[in-house]
From TrEMBL:
Domain Alpha-L-rhamnosidase six-hairpin glycosidase: from-to ranges: 86-228
Alpha-L-rhamnosidase C-terminal domain segment(s): 411-468
PANTHER family: ALPHA-L-RHAMNOSIDASE SIX-HAIRPIN GLYCOSIDASE DOMAIN-CONTAINING PROTEIN, C, PUTATIVE (AFU_ORTHOLOGUE AFUA_3G02880)-RELATED
Organism: termite gut metagenome
Signal peptide (residue range): none
GO BP terms: carbohydrate metabolic process
Name of protein: Alpha-L-rhamnosidase
C-alpha cells in the first residue's frame, strides 16, 4: 500500500535469507515454477499485489534514484486450507514434538488446490511424493478431498499405457495409496470409481515381470540420492512391485474381481523368487525389508550402518518403518532426532527436499545472512534438479517422521477399512510417556501411554462409538 508517491521496486522472495540476496542465475536462483524475483511499478495511493510463491523472507529494493517512496504498509498473504489439526503427538522429548509438528505443517502448506510436492517448487502433483504426504494427512487431518482430487488428476492425465509422472514407480505408488486411502476412509464408492483404470494398470504392471521373476520396468527411479545406483534401484523396484501388487490384489478382492486378484497374488509369488542384492543401499534395504523379501535384522543392519549418513528426506520414512519392523525403535527415534532435528537447528520451519547430514558442518543458519568463512547451506549444496537456491525447503515427502511417530510410537494401526477396528500397539523406545490423537470417520481417538517403573506400559484409549480398539 503506497502513499503520496510512486516508483519502481524490485522484490525477491526466498525460503532462506541467502535466496533473497541473490540474482536469478546465481547459485541456482531461479524463477522456475513461481516468480521469486521481479520488478514492479507501484502506483500513487494504490495497492500492488505480487508473489504467487512460497517464501519466508522478502527483500525489497527501491530502484528509482534521487527519489522517495512512501510505503504505508507491507503485508503478506497466507493462502492455506483452514482445517483443524485433529491428530496430535506429544511425548517427554520436546525435539520430537517439534519435528512431528514441523512435518505436519510442511504438508499442510502443500495442501493447496491440489496436493503439491513443494510450496515454492515444483508446485506440482507427483504421485511418489504423495505417499508420505498422504500418510501424514491420515494421522494429522483425517480424510481431506485434496487427496482423491490429486489422485484422480494424475489418473485422468495418464493413459494406462504410460507411467504416472513418466516414472514407473509412481504408478506403483498410486496403487499403494489407493489401498491405504480405502483403509483410512472406507469409501467404497470412491474405490469403485477407480476399477476401470486400476484393473488394466495392474495387468500392465504384471506384464513387467520376466521369466525369472525379475521386474523389467522402464523409467526407473526411487529417490534422487539413489539415482546413481542401478542395482539399488532394481532392488527397490522389485520390492515396490511386491508391495503394489499385494495392495492391488486386496483392492481387486474388495471390488469382486477375483480373477485379477489371483493374478496379482501369483505375480507376487513369482516376484518373491528373485531377491536382488541390497547393493549397500538404505533405500533398497528398507523396501526389501518392508516387502518381506529380506530378514528384518539384515535390512536393519544396512540402514543403521553409519547412522543417518545416506538417509534421504523422501525414503527416510521407509527407513524408519523398516527399523521399526526390525524392533529398532530407539534407533529410529535417534535417527529422527539427528537427521530431521539437524534441519531445525539450521533454522528450518519446514522440512527440505533433500538433506545430507554432512551439510551441518560449519554451516550458517538459513534464517541469517551467510557468514564469512561459513557454508551457505542453501546456496552451496543440493544436487540433481535441486542444486543451490533452486532447492525446495518445504517439501511434503520429507514429512515421514510425523506419520511414523503416530503409527509406530503412539502405535495406531488400521485393521479394518474406515478405521472400524484399530490396533493400538505402543513402542516407546527410550521415551517415558506419549499421548496423542488419531482422526477417524467416526471422530477422534484419544490415546495415552505411560512407562511404569517395571518397564511395562500403561495405556488408556478413548474411542468414539463405531471404532473398536484391540491391543
Amino acid at each position: 500500500v503506497t502513499g503520496y508517491s510512486k516508483g519502481r521496486i524490485r522484490v525477491r522472495f526466498g525460503e532462506s535469507v541467502s535466496e533473497v540476496m541473490h540474482n536469478v542465475g546465481e547459485k541456482g536462483a531461479t524463477n522456475d515454477h513461481a516468480i521469486r524475483d521481479e520488478i514492479l511499478d507501484l502506483p500513487l495511493l494504490g495497492v500492488n499485489e505480487t508473489g504467487n510463491t512460497g517464501f519466508r523472507f522478502v527483500r525489497i529494493d527501491f530502484l528509482d534514484k534521487k527519489a522517495e517512496l512512501s510505503l504505508k504498509e507491507i503485508r503478506a498473504k497466507f493462502i492455506y486450507r483452514d482445517i483443524p489439526y485433529l491428530g496430535f503427538f506429544k511425548c517427554d522429548d520436546e525435539l520430537l514434538n517439534q519435528i512431528w509438528m514441523t512435518g505436519a505443517y510442511t504438508v499442510h502448506l502443500n495442501m493447496q488446490d491440489y496436493l503439491w510436492d513443494g510450496i515454492k517448487r515444483d508446485r506440482l502433483v507427483w504421485l511418489g511424493d504423495m505417499h508420505p504426504e498422504v500418510s501424514t494427512i491420515k494421522y494429522v487431518f483425517g480424510a481431506n478431498e485434496v487427496v482423491p482430487k490429486s489422485l484422480d488428476f494424475i489418473r485422468d492425465k495418464t493413459p494406462v499405457t504410460s507411467w504416472m509422472n513418466s516414472i514407473s514407480s509412481y504408478t506403483l505408488w498410486w496403487v499403494i495409496i489407493q489401498r491405504d486411502w480405502y483403509q483410512n476412509t472406507g469409501n467404497l464408492a470412491y474405490l469403485q470409481e477407480q476399477k476401470d483404470y486400476l484393473f488394466p494398470v495392474l495387468e500392465r504392471v504384471i506384464s513387467q515381470i520376466d521369466e525369472n521373476g525379475s521386474e523389467k520396468l522402464g523409467n526407473r527411479f526411487l529417490d534422487w540420492p539413489s539415482s546413481g545406483n542401478q542395482q539399488a534401484i532394481h532392488g527397490g523396484l522389485q520390492a515396490l512391485m511386491v508391495w503394489s501388487l499385494s495392495s492391488g490384489g486386496e483392492l481387486c478382492t474388495i471390488l469382486q474381481n477375483e480373477d485379477m486378484a489371483n493374478q496379482c497374488r501369483q505375480a507376487v509369488v513369482q516376484l518373491r523368487t528373485h531377491v536382488p542384492e541390497i547393493a549397500k543401499s538404505k533405500q533398497a534395504a528398507a523396501l526389501l525389508l518392508l516387502s518381506g523379501m529380506i530378514a528384518p535384522e539384515t535390512g536393519n543392519a544396512v540402514i543403521s550402518d553409519r547412522g543417518v549418513h545416506d538417509f534421504s528426506t523422501f525414503y527416510g520414512y521407509y527407513m524408519l518403518q523398516a527399523m521399526a519392523k526390525a524392533g529398532n525403535y530407539t534407533g529410529a527415534l535417534n535417527s529422527i532426532r539427528e537427521y530431521w532435528g539437524a534441519m531445525l537447528k539450521l533454522g528450518a520451519t519446514t522440512f527440505w527436499e533433500d538433506f545430507n547430514i554432512d551439510w551441518v558442518n560449519n554451516a550458517s543458519r538459513i534464517d541469517e545472512l551467510p557468514q564469512d568463512g561459513k557454508v551457505d547451506v542453501h546456496g552451496d549444496y543440493g544436487d540433481y534438479c535441486y542444486k543451490g537456491l533452486r532447492h525446495s525447503f518445504c517439501h511434503g515427502w520429507a514429512s515421514g517422521p510425523t506419520a511414523w511417530l503416530s503409527e509406530s510410537i503412539l502405535g495406531v494401526q488400521i485393521l479394518e477399512p474406515g478405521c472400524k477396528v484399530l490396533k493400538i500397539v505402543p513402542h516407546l523406545g527410550d521415551l517415558k510417556w506419549v499421548e496423542g490423537s488419531f482422526p477417524t470417520p467416526y471422530g477422534t481417538v484419544q490415546i495415552k501411554h505411560t512407562k511404569q517403573s517395571d518397564g511395562k506400559i500403561k495405556t488408556t484409549v478413548d474411542a468414539p462409538k463405531g471404532v473398536k480398539i484391540v491391543k
